[in-house]
Automatic annotation (TrEMBL):
Domain IF140/IFT172/WDR19 TPR residues, every copy: 7-278
Matches recorded under InterPro entries: TPR_IF140/IFT172/WDR19
Organism for this UniProt entry: Spumella elongata
Protein name per Swiss-Prot or TrEMBL: IF140/IFT172/WDR19 TPR domain-containing protein
UniProt entry keywords in alphabetical sequence: Cell projection, Cilium, Repeat, WD repeat
The keyword Repeat is annotated on this UniProt entry: yes
Keyword Chaperone in annotation: no
Source organism phylogeny: Eukaryota, Sar, Stramenopiles, Ochrophyta, Chrysophyceae
Taxonomic superkingdom: Eukaryota
Pfam families xref list: TPR_IF140-IFT172
Subcellular localization, as worded in the UniProt entry: Cell projection, Cilium
Gene Ontology BP terms: intraciliary transport
GO terms under cellular component: axoneme; ciliary basal body; intraciliary transport particle B
Amino acid sequence: EDSRQYDLAERCFVSADQPHLAVEMHTKLGHWEVAHKIAMSYMKEGEVGLLYINQAQKLEAKGRLKEAEKLYLSVKEKDLAINMYKKHRRFDDMVRLVQDHRPDLLKETHQFLAQTLEMEGSLKDAEHHYVEAQEWHSAVNMYRSNELWDDAIRVAKFYGGINACKRVTIALLMAIGVVEGAKYLTKHSLVEAAIEYAAENGSFDMAMELATQNMPKKLPELYLKHALFLEDDEQFAQAEDKFIKANKPKEAIDMYVHQQDWVSALRVAEGYDPTAIPDVYVAQAKVKAEAGEFKAAEELYLSASRPELALAMYQEADRWSEALNLAKMHLPHRVAEVNGGYQSSQTRKGKGSSKNDYMAVGRSLEQNKQWDQAIDAYLNAK
């Protein structure tokens, strides 16, 4: 061997029943295939394994990691090869072997490396492994924890899109305040997204402050969203205030109408939208009618200048006397129609109108100068 007569040395080692020395010699020389052939031909499997592991460890100690890897893999000791690279922080090689020989552990390996590197402060490298582990949100949280907001936004935007960015914006604003946070948001064109996300999550004070300073045009929309939020929470007075600030008094009126708070509904209508006053009266009238309070409903309909609705109410309730009186007072041109409806109703009930009924109708029509209809009524009074 010393004189470099390796073939002769090999035969001598084998003849002397020392094949492991021949294997060691060829291993040192890098003759991996020859060494492996001798080992498999002259040594037991267990002996081969121990020999290769021992040789690999010696090579590892000398820093010859690639060669040590070959020996470990030759005897199917892939975990020893993986751990060798882990111990020497050759993480790319470690991942390569895990991917080739332990694919089921690849995600776990990336997670471990990411967490290790994060603890050591190697955040960019940690990010790489979080992403490879499909845990990009952990990279975002890592950068948030270290207040590296540009990086947090960058990762969130690239891997999670605008929705992920929105979550980062809230954390940013809560951590460093609206004034400073707005600088990052402006840089990344996220001001509007941040305002919307804050409002969606009920952080209206934050959204208002951000909008006031950076996007005033969003304020009416925010006031409206806040108003609807407060209405759902049954904080009606506060909701009213926000509706008014959003220039949406009609929504405040509708809110009070829904609650049958007629006083408040009228107050808002009188103060901010007088055209809605009749609508409030009509809505209240319908409620009164449903409760059988017809006279009160009539007064409300008349206050709304909608006598035709009061007439329809009486007709539907089969209250023909009140209908006729109302028509005489407020809708004289419809007296004949009401009388006709009354007659039809009586007929359906198997009753007929009396002579006095026809005469009363005739006189009413005559007073209203509806001569033809009056004559018909008198002729029916037989």
